[in-house]
Design brief:
By secondary structure, this protein is mainly α. Helix content is 56%, strand content 2%. About 3% of the residues have low confidence.
């Protein structure tokens, strides 16, 4: 991900401490009809949490909706999050992970919520500085939007990062996750879940308001000024932002 993981690693340690009082049930109630086996359930108990392997966790992660309830997720969350920050692991879409966290979050203490928010913020900051980011910006923001209530710190970090990598996150979001005709996000995981329409609309609106504000213009303009590459993709992103229809937007800053 990036050569400096110190802040992210510190946040992961906080996550383990905050959730240390969440034991794993002796029987985690997997669906044995078609989704899991008793051997896979036993694997969750075969090692301390920090030592659980990818192989041990993958069957559970792939069946989050049919395996136990939030008690299992609350115990396994720190290890799953730690593995999700590594390039060679995540057995499910990261957005699915975020939606599962949103269901468990109401059962968390204030300390647990703060630790989770810090962990996701440091993951976002690490991705902004990574030479080879693990996640696309739209999928990671969507995940964080499900897992956290306030995306303000993440958007502020994006605007202040001042790195070509952070700007390329913006370029990719405009190119692949932004609908200029509706001035809205394309990522389907923001959309309907069960009977609830747009359950994370407030988080979506935070991103949309930020995209229509001055920060994206400044970031892209600075990239042009620096001569960042690929120049053609940056120019295309400026055209997409300029052509966004259906919302009041500022004029791009002039050099």
């Amino acid at each position: 991900m990036t050569t400096d993981r110190s802040a992210l690693d510190g946040a992961i340690e906080d996550l383990y401490r905050a959730f240390a009082g969440r034991p794993l049930r002796r029987w985690t109630d997997p669906c044995l009809t078609c989704c899991a086996t008793e051997e896979e359930e036993a694997a969750l108990h075969a090692a301390p949490l920090r030592q659980l392997s990818v192989d041990a966790l993958s069957p559970y992660a792939e069946n989050l909706t049919t395996w136990g309830d939030e008690r299992e997720l609350n115990h396994l969350f720190p290890r799953m999050f730690e593995l999700a920050t590594q390039e060679d692991y995540f057995p499910i879409g990261v957005e699915t992970f975020g939606t599962a966290i949103s269901r468990a979050r109401p059962s968390w203490s204030t300390a647990e919520q703060r630790a989770a928010d810090r962990a996701f913020l440091e993951l976002w900051r690490a991705e902004l500085g990574a030479t080879s980011p693990v996640y696309q910006p739209d999928e990671l923001l969507c995940t964080i939007g499900w897992a956290s209530d306030d995306l303000g710190p993440h958007l502020s970090s994006w605007a202040s990062a001042g790195t070509p990598t952070a700007t390329m996150h913006l370029v990719r979001l405009l190119g692949f996750g932004w609908d200029p005709w509706r001035a809205d996000l394309d990522e389907p995981f923001w959309q309907t879940r069960g009977d609830d329409q747009f359950p994370r609309r407030a988080q979506m609106d935070q991103i949309v308001a930020w995209m229509l504000g001055p920060d994206p213009w400044r970031m892209l303009d600075a990239a042009v000024e620096r001569g960042d590459e690929p120049a053609d993709e940056i120019e295309e992103a400026l055209l997409i932002l300029t052509g966004t229809i259906g919302a009041a937007r500022p004029q791009p800053p002039r050099r």
